[in-house]
TrEMBL record:
Entries under SMART domains matching the protein: AAA
Protein name (Swiss-Prot/TrEMBL): DNA translocase FtsK 4TM domain-containing protein
An annotated GO cellular component: plasma membrane
PANTHER family linked to this entry: DNA TRANSLOCASE FTSK, SPORULATION PROTEIN RELATED
Positions with biased composition (Basic and acidic residues): 542-558
Binding site for ATP: 447-454
InterPro entries, per database record: AAA+_ATPase (IPR003593), FtsK/SpoIIIE/SftA (IPR050206), FtsK_4TM (IPR025199), FtsK_alpha (IPR041027), FtsK_dom (IPR002543), P-loop_NTPase (IPR027417)
Chain segments annotated as transmembrane: 56-80, 87-109, 115-138, 145-171
The organism's taxonomic lineage, starting at the top: Bacteria, Pseudomonadati, Thermodesulfobacteriota, Desulfobacteria, Desulfobacterales
Residue ranges of the region described as Disordered: 229-254, 542-562
Length: 656
């Protein structure tokens, strides 16, 4: 309450001094005026009180008195911010120095200045005294330098703004403004140069056409007649020949020939053809379409490694099972290992706890079990979905290498009818894990550096390349690291080269948003729900048109023309989201959210990978729209909970 009252009082003083000083009049009654002069009326807006107050401070400080409202405003600001030291002496002291230096500085040039129809003394009593004292020892230039120096000190005291900070800020703003102006100037000069080149080429074309026309018109008429008759004899057009015996007819024929030649050599203006079967984006995609005879890469491109059959040591597995039961029993957890599932990398022990045992007691013993089994780490799946057992995953002493060729050559991958089939790896039993991205529909991948995240991403890309032609699937690849995805620059599936500039990456994402909106308009116009239905409709219309053309080649109407070519699926791949979020987090989050929410029906899918799954990178909005997530080994439990909404990712083995 006290603070509000003092703030209101200071606000009133600011208004009072501002109105009184700026309505000051030299003839108003005030200190320093001749008492014998009786004014006709008071000019000050605050009346007699304002006239006396304004006259007193102008008499003391002259022009410098106009700093008083500014100083009071700063005092109010510091008081509200509870900076007591500034309120007590720094701001008033700096303001006093500013008022004295301002008045003395103006006094060096004139004794008084005209203001609102009256004269204001330049320095007042204090300013004129200080200026006179300085002029006794230094000249006018030296006096001005001294006053400017002390005025800067007063400004720093009053405002608290450092000159270094102010200079740095001005330099930065000026540099940014200069860079923007230079960029715009370069762009304008480029446009200007293109315009000049177009004007030059157009003028040259016009001049050549005019010279050719003049040469033709100036040719002897007999030569034209001979040339015309020769051409007519060589080319049978089926037209009746004119009667050359008639002089008038011959003369008309000559005139007609001259007109035809003039038309031939005159510049021809061709109206642009309107493309009624494709949109702009279709033409862009058509420029990069490959021939229909495109063949998928053979399996032989992938290296075939000799698979060494790992012998399963049943005795050792039974021994580990007994150690598990014994160790859990030591912690009063009763139960039995009911099944052992050895896999290529880990072995799963299915443990059925006794009735009355809480799962939380088992999940909290992962470190103790790892110590008992001398394992790197242990992951506990409690419970296994659809089962009454707990899965305890223990890494094998010898791991099998998962070969990409095994996944691509698997029956599930080959027989999959989806163009967006991904080979993810092998499950616990060593079976290939094949999934369809159009069912996901978007994928979020996280993992620490060196855990196999980039290898997994490359395996997914190669899976798509082995399944789809450039007409079926297109890619937009964003690679902040510049080296991970650059190997795909020459593949025909790319809509644009791999984007490595993060400023251009936002443009690529917004292009995908615009393409999604355009496809939704096509679906709405045709009453369809997804891209697959649209492509089926286009193929069916093209087949029916081809059938009608085969039955009746002369019958062709506007309805027979194809609506468009089938639209390809688009997969947007971002290799490192954190680098992209550092450049333009709001724009990137908006674009990814729009795509993740709506792009599935439009045939646009997203794969995002990041090695820093922190809350500022994987925001709540992004996570909410990416239900399908893959986590490699992460560096902390917090990162694992952010990416998977549960623990366990920090206990993975790494290397995939």
């Amino acid at each position: 309450m006290k603070k509000e009252l003092i703030s209101l009082l200071l606000l009133f003083l600011i208004i009072f001094f501002a109105v009184s000083l700026f309505s000051f009049h030299a003839q108003d009654p005030a200190i320093g005026n001749d008492p014998l002069i009786v004014p006709a009326g008071i000019h000050n807006l605050f009346g007699l009180v304002g006239a006396h107050v304004a006259g007193f401070f102008v008499f003391l400080f002259g022009v410098g008195a106009f700093w008083i409202p500014v100083i009071l405003s700063l005092i109010t600001l510091w008081y509200i911010k509870e900076k007591s030291s500034r309120v007590m002496w720094l701001t008033p002291a700096g303001g006093m120095i500013l008022m004295i230096c301002t008045g003395a500085g103006f006094f060096l040039f004139k004794d008084a200045y005209a203001f609102s129809g009256t004269l204001v003394p330049a320095g007042g009593w204090v300013g004129s005294t200080v200026a006179g004292f300085l002029l006794t020892y230094v000249n006018s230039l030296g006096c001005m330098i001294v006053l400017v120096f002390f005025a800067v000190i007063g400004f720093i005291f009053a405002t608290g703004i450092s000159m270094v900070t102010l200079g740095t800020m001005v330099y930065q703003k000026t540099s940014v403004l200069a860079a923007v102006m230079l960029r715009e100037l370069k762009q304008f000069s480029g446009y200007l140069g293109q315009g000049i080149e177009q004007m030059k080429s157009g003028w040259q074309s016009y001049r050549m056409a005019r010279e050719a026309r003049s040469m033709t018109i100036d040719m002897p008429r007999a030569l034209i007649q001979n040339q015309t008759s020769t051409d007519s004899s060589q080319l049978e057009t089926g037209l009746p020949h004119p009667d050359t015996s008639n002089s008038k007819g011959a003369r008309d024929q000559d005139e007609q020939d001259a007109i035809d030649l003039d038309d031939v050599f005159s510049p021809t203006i061709v109206a642009p053809q309107v493309d009624t079967t494709e949109y702009v984006s279709d033409r862009v995609l058509a420029d990069i379409r490959q021939p229909e005879a495109f063949k998928l890469p053979p399996i032989s491109f992938l290296e075939e490694k000799v698979k060494i059959r790992r012998e399963i040591d049943t005795d050792k597995l039974q021994q580990k099972a007994r150690i598990l039961e014994t160790k859990l029993n030591d912690f009063n957890v009763k139960g039995d290992v009911v099944e052992i599932l050895p896999g290529p990398v880990i072995t799963t022990f299915e443990y059925r706890p006794a009735p009355g045992i809480k799962l939380s007691k088992i999940t909290g013993l992962s470190d103790d079990l790892a110590l008992a089994l001398s394992a790197v780490s242990i992951r506990i799946v409690a419970p296994i979905p659809g089962r009454d057992v707990v899965g305890i995953e223990i890494p094998n002493d010898e791991r099998e290498m998962v070969n990409l060729r095994e996944m691509v050559a698997s029956r599930d991958f080959i027989q999959s009818d989806s163009m967006l089939t991904l080979g993810l790896g092998k499950d616990l039993m060593g079976r290939p894990v094949i999934t369809k991205m159009d069912k996901m529909p978007h994928l979020l991948i996280a993992g620490a550096t060196g855990t196999g995240k980039s290898v997994g991403l490359n395996a997914m890309i190669i899976s798509l390349l082995y399944k789809a032609t450039p007409d079926d699937v297109k890619f937009i690849m964003i690679d902040p690291k510049r080296i991970e995805l650059s190997v795909y620059n020459d593949i025909p599936h790319l809509i644009s080269p791999v984007v490595t500039d993060m400023k251009k990456a936002t443009n690529a994402l917004f292009w995908a948003v615009k393409e999604m909106e355009r496809r939704y308009e096509l679906l709405e116009e045709n009453g369809l729900r997804n891209l697959a239905q649209y492509n089926d409709m286009v193929r069916e219309k093209n087949r029916s048109r081809a059938a009608r053309s085969a039955d009746d080649p002369e019958h062709e109407t506007g309805d027979d023309l194809p609506v468009s070519e089938p639209l390809p699926y688009i997969v947007v791949i971002v290799d490192e989201l954190s680098d992209l979020m550092m450049v333009a987090s709001k724009d990137v989050e908006f674009a990814l959210t729009r795509l993740a929410q709506m792009a599935r029906a439009a045939g646009i899918h997203i794969i995002i990978a990041t090695q820093r799954p922190s809350a500022d990178v994987l925001t709540g909005t992004i996570k909410a729209n990416f239900p399908t997530r893959i986590s490699f080994q992460v560096s902390s439990k917090i990162d694992g909970r952010i990416i998977m909404d549960q623990g366990g990712a920090e206990s993975l083995l790494g290397n995939g």
